[in-house]
Write a structure and sequence with these properties.
The protein has helices spanning 7-16, 30-38, 46-53, 77-80, 137-146, 149-154, 167-188; strands spanning 22-25, 54-58, 64-67, 93-99, 104-108, 120-123, 131-132. The longest helix is centred in the C-terminal third of the chain and has 22 residues, at 167-188. It has 190 residues and is of the alpha+beta class. The protein is built from seven helices and seven strands. Helices cover 36% and strands 16% of the residues. It has a seven-stranded antiparallel β-sheet with strand order 1-2-3-4-5-6-7, with helices on both faces.
């Protein structure tokens, strides 16, 4: 790998060397690109790279999906967060990934969550309490892409593995969880 490579070249190399992960190309329109600009993500941002290049990325285990840009297969980062003018409707978090059973991962960008800025949070499928993971987005992506199902089970992962779900099946779970989060936020005045 060229030592003078750009971040985008390094990210492309990184994704190409996770052979068991699965990517779907993005088909962003001008409105999605404008939302990325409004989010003020730098050209060096891995999140920006994923949203521009991939509709979604499915990790090695098949149970963790990173949201990307607009695509024809499933919800994008923009859709799951109901992004409007670059801002999410959720107070303090940007949803970045989901599990096959409807759990959500999010980036914290608020002091009110009790987590560090940029820290990844996890919301289990059957909970409304965010859990701090103590890692940032790049470390989370590296973990999500490389972790196997047996690694998840041996580390105490409690999400059920009865059946891996298609992106469309996962979307139904995610939409339900997002509706609940929106409802809770409306009731609490956030």
């Amino acid at each position: 790998m060229d030592t003078n490579a750009s971040n985008n070249q390094l990210y492309s190399y990184w994704f190409a060397n996770y052979p068991q992960s699965f990517t779907v190309p993005a088909c962003n329109t001008d409105s999605e690109i404008a939302m990325l600009e409004a989010m003020a993500l730098s050209d060096h941002s891995l999140l920006r790279f994923i949203c521009i290049n991939y509709g979604y990325v499915l990790g090695k285990s098949g149970h963790i999906r990173l949201f990307g840009g607009k695509n024809n297969n499933c919800m994008s980062l923009f859709e799951v967060n109901n992004l409007e003018n670059g801002y999410t409707v959720f107070n303090g978090v940007l949803i970045i990934a989901s599990t096959s059973e409807g759990g959500l991962f999010a980036l914290n960008f608020s002091k009110t969550t009790g987590a560090n800025l940029g820290e990844v949070l996890f919301l289990p499928a059957k909970s409304l309490n965010w859990e701090k993971l103590g890692i940032g987005y790049k470390a989370f992506c590296k973990w999500a892409l490389g972790v196997s199902e047996s690694d998840l089970v041996s580390s105490g992962w409690i999400e059920p593995y009865a059946k891996k779900k298609t992106p469309n099946e996962q979307d139904r779970l995610v939409k339900g969880k997002v509706c609940v989060l929106e409802s809770v936020a409306e009731r609490s005045g956030d």
